[in-house]
Amino acid sequence: MEISSEKKGRLYIALKIVLLAFLVAVAVGLLTESIRIESNKPENTISFSGHGEVTAVPDIANVYFTISKDAKTVKEAQALVATVEKSSLDSLKANNVLEKDIKTADASFYPKYEYKQAACPPVPMGMGYAGVTVSPSSPYYCPPNKQVITGYTASESITVKVRNTDDVGKIMQALGTLGVSNLSGPNFAIDNEDGLKAEARKKAIDDAKAKAELLAKDLGVHLGKITSFNEGGNYPVMYSAKSAMMDSASSAPAPAQLPKGENTITSDVTITYEIR
Known about the structure:
Layout: H1 5-39, E1 45-56, E2 60-71, H2 74-94, E3 102-116, E4 119-120, E5 140-141, E6 146-162, H3 168-175, E7 181-189, H4 194-219, E8 223-237, E9 263-275
Antiparallel strand pairs: 1-9, 2-6, 2-7, 3-6, 4-5, 8-9
């Protein structure tokens, strides 16, 4: 059967379209493979570290103490703690410590136990424990031991932020006379460190950039974009003055002034550049 010229033309056009689509698919595949290989090509990079630090005089002092009391009942032990707590709070407020700067860190109570052996009742002659002969009128001790509650301990831990650091010695001295225990501090710190952290970070970045520019010049390369950045440190190095106060009111009094020293906030960064 003879195909008309019109049908031949249509068939020819269809074959050309199929061939063109095949060529386009092959070209797209080759381009994709080229992009993939190029993306997996290792970058030429170089890393530099930088260090920055800022020092500042602490503007707050943190003090910690515990109130712990024993009694026969939980209620009695808690009442004793509450009495010392009230005296402590009154003392802190009298020394201009703000209520928002006094925080209870922990409050608890727990029983106190003691092991006791009960005396067995008198027994006739020859009837003792494990074949031991005893007098009818003499009690003897037999196992097991018995654990009994002898009382309760109530405890409360309090943290205090002192904003007038010149008063911290006087404040600790007053607390030491009120029956508190485990009085510790002061730990001198900076109340708002964010600005100092940012300043230390900028110094660290400038340090790393300066090293990068100098070495790039020596190596005869050009620095490209930053490919990664990492920061470590950015924490305060804290120095606390050791208090002469002990756990009892009879200890040596704290000095009126305690040295604050300086706190150092550091930042360490690593910057990676692309080089070309």
